[in-house]
Predict the 3D structure of the following.
Amino acid sequence: MLTGELVLVVLIVIGLIGRSHMLTTAACFLLILRLSHLERYFPTLERRGLELGLLFLMIAVLVPLVDGTLTVSDLARVFISPAGIAAIIGGLVATYLNGQGLHLLRQDPSLMIGLVLGSIFGIVFLRGIPVGPLMAAAIAAMLVEIWQWLRFLSR
């Protein structure tokens, strides 16, 4: 068995043990592609998979606006309630941090391995939801900044 196939089988087992259906399904899908000799689609999946995932996430978030679950008055309350204002600020901070994460990944692409491992551990052991490596990179960038700041202060 090749290394990539072995890694996928290990991820499937980890997903099953950790009851992470997303991890198990993703690893099974990639293993099927690999065993079917359809590796030519891997670069496209790597390049566009995140965009596709974010597209479906955005669709899921927008459905309540379209199906009438949320009304115009609900939207108006977002701008005057403390939780709504916090959500707006959270969106602003998240997009800024995502930019910092992208910068960090451009500087050191090998960090993606750590992001993937951390995401897998978070899925399996903390029952987390993988929303994407960019947000993980954003948090990593923030932690790197804090680490550098603490090192500077200790001098």
Summary: The chain has seven helices and no strands. The longest helix spans residues 82-107. The mean pLDDT is 85.
